[in-house]
Amino acid sequence: MKYISNVNISQNLPSVITLGNFDGIHLGHRKLINTVKKVGEDMGLQSIIFSFYPHPQIVLNKGNFPGMIFSRNEKKKRLEEIGIDTYIEHPFTKEFANISPEEFVEKILIKELNTKIIVIGTNNKFGKKQKGDIHFLREREKQWGISVIEMTPVLYDNAIVSSTRVREELLKGNIEKVNELLEVSYSIIGKIVKGRNLGHKLGYPTANILPYKDRIYPPEGVFITRTKYKAKVYNSVTNIGFNPTVNGKVKNIETHMIDFNKSIYDEEIEVEFHKWIRKEQKFSNLQGLMSQLKLDVNESKRYFENW
Description:
Elements: E1 2-4, E2 15-19, H1 27-43, E3 46-53, H2 56-59, H3 72-82, E4 86-91, H4 94-97, H5 101-112, E5 115-121, H6 134-138, H7 141-144, E6 147-151, E7 155-156, E8 159-160, H8 163-172, H9 175-182, E9 187-191, H10 198-202, E10 207-209, E11 221-229, E12 232-241, E13 252-257, E14 268-279, H11 286-303
């Protein structure tokens, strides 16, 4: 997959494109993206995802934006797994937000990206004051020599699947519901940093990841997870929190990979979340913490017995 994160986006090949933030790449996003991929394969067109960074709500100061569901790297990885030809993460500025829908389509989509087909959601709006939408495009199909494919919202449990809905479930710790809305397991990717070595001393060494500032995470607690490292997958238990038993002050994501004992500092892992176990607790002593860790590990083992 070709990845572009600047304004030099010109493409020679004719393309089919969809545009949006795609935060979380949930069921609704996947419907759009898979349609772009299939149309591209069927029509011999380059498949393009046109997205933005930073998130428009951050740039335009629209309320208290809680944060992204996935980091830029995680989002890119998921799009690559789907099999898109080109992913454009266009810089989003206040100047860019003031581009009219006409100028955006004519100068960027058609002139720069050689767009022949636009796949767009019913509720998608773009351009200055969000005046561009499916009706705007339909009215100009012949004028611009393009085709427009409309995608209706995806419903799950009789409600529209949206990034807002995914965020709400994630912040509640409803991991199983989040995974249903995403179609795949929610995960966190990061490089391992050095911690206090407390887990190692207790017999449960952990791989520690520091949280990204502009990304949201599940609430503090312990989760059943699986961890990918160098093409292998290990059952695991992950704690998100501050280590209150030892008066920790910094939030960490700590994962104990079961039956794994290598030192992997500065290397990358991906932690897939499957189920919430319990809230983070402060124990009166380390022996109490160690006993609970043993219970957590056994629960993870039982969960994956019939996996």
